[in-house]
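Submission checklist for the structure archive. All mandatory fields must be present; incomplete records are returned to the submitter.

[x] Identifier: phosphoglycolate phosphatase
[x] Organism: Mucilaginibacter pankratovii
[x] Residue count: 215
[x] Sequence attached
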Amino acid sequence: MDSTLKDQYDSIIFDLDGTLWDSTDTITGAWQAALNKAPYMSHEVMTRERVRSITGMTYDAIFEKLFPFLNPDQRAEVQKLCSLSELEILHKQGGTLYPKLEETLIYLKQKYKLYIVSNCQSGYIELFLDLNSMHSHFLAHQCFGTKGNPKADNIRDIVNDNGLKAPVYVGDTMGDYDAATKAGVPFIFASYGFGVVESGQIATIDNFEELKVIL
């Protein structure tokens, strides 16, 4: 594993889904429960594959892609139902942390300032931190739900608001790569997640613990 990236950065910004944990199964069940509450959605079946296919998209864009046949009012209602169901059920069931996650974060925060930027709804990052007692590992976070801004803008906000001089972003999709690139932040690809990034990244990790080696 290449270790030439050591001592080049002052901070690490992480994506959440597909990078720090996998909540796909829980969200699939939560969204199905929400769809069952809308009579005009009784025919819809939510699957793990459908949820994974939209991971990394903004919350608004997710429902436009999944349900293009709905009118704006129906889509807004379904999005609200799914949002409430997601947070409620995640509070009970949570997601699956990737192996050696906390051990690696503890190691990394000795050298780097750690942050999270995700395209999720408001409350989702907080739920992740609460459920897993991880508030102490991260100095700040930002998401789509806060201001409705794209991920690139939210990465810039974290960089500017915290005076970061040499950040690096870790994510698992092309959307993550594109956002980091637009924000002028180097990108490390987490290949164990949900997406594919074929080129442009400064490094690829096959498991979360490999960050201890390259950084």
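[x] Structure attached
Curator remark: The CA atoms of residues 38 and 78 lie 7 Å apart. The chain has a mean pLDDT of 95.
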